[in-house]
Amino acid sequence: MPAAARRSDPSDPFQAGLFQQESNVFVPIADATGRIAYTPGWIAPACAAQWFRQLHDGIAWHGQRRMMYERMLTVPRLTAHFRLDDPALPPPLGEAAARARASVGAPFTTAGLNFYRDRHDSVAPHNDHLDEIVRGQPIALLSLGATRLMTIRAKRPPRRVLRLQLEPGSLLLMDYATQLHYDHAIPKQRDAVGPRISVAFRCSVGR
């Protein structure tokens, strides 16, 4: 059982869903605000390790600078983006996308990648831009490399926070409605941690 499930408080209705299982799928949220499902071991450890190495070494990662907090700052992670119909698509992404389409039943068209190099890399609380996603379609997040904490916070009071340890080879599925009601983040960590790659499959508008 994932560490997040072991640490949950079953008396808390926000986290009680962690004990609802569909095979090995853990469903922390399934209500009017949307549905989030976490599948540890979605791909085998050896495959997850191989895909991590191939993407780590085979992708031209990009650094970015953005206006944040009224200052131009360096984005604390590296990124890459692919259309899934790109003839030059890295093989792991094609294999993962085919499996995600079959598993989720969504016609994913793009893959957005984040490379967290160490404990200092992060992504601030946010929701995906719904004007860039086909209405009603989910987002599937594949994790490779080191385990990292994701926080999922309700936008409205009491703004409870769900904490999930995203393990290598896991898949996190967030439906369209969750982007309206929750923010998610990968916070910086105090302790040293290895590199992680996340692959977000989306049904992007016009792609």
Describe this structure in words.
By secondary structure, the chain is an alpha+beta fold. The protein has a single domain (25-202), classed as Sandwich (Jelly Rolls), CATH 2.60.120.590. The chain is 17% helix and 37% strand. Strands 1-2-3-12-9-14-7-6 form an 8-stranded antiparallel beta sheet. The chain has a 4-stranded antiparallel beta sheet with strand order 8-13-10-11. β10 (148-154) and β11 (161-166) form a beta hairpin. The model is unreliable at 1-22 (pLDDT under 50).
Offer a concise description of the structure.
This protein has 207 residues and is α+β, with helices and mostly antiparallel strands. A hairpin with a 6-residue loop joins strand 10 (148-154) and strand 11. The chain has one domain (25-202): Jelly Rolls, CATH 2.60.120.
Q: Shape from CA axes? A: globular
Query: Termini distance?
Result: 37 Å
Strand content: 35-45%
The biggest sheet, with number of strands, parallel, antiparallel or mixed sense and barrel status, is:
8 strands, antiparallel
**Which topology does CATH recognise?**
Jelly Rolls
- Poorly predicted tracts of residues: 1-22
Q: Quick check: average pLDDT? A: 89
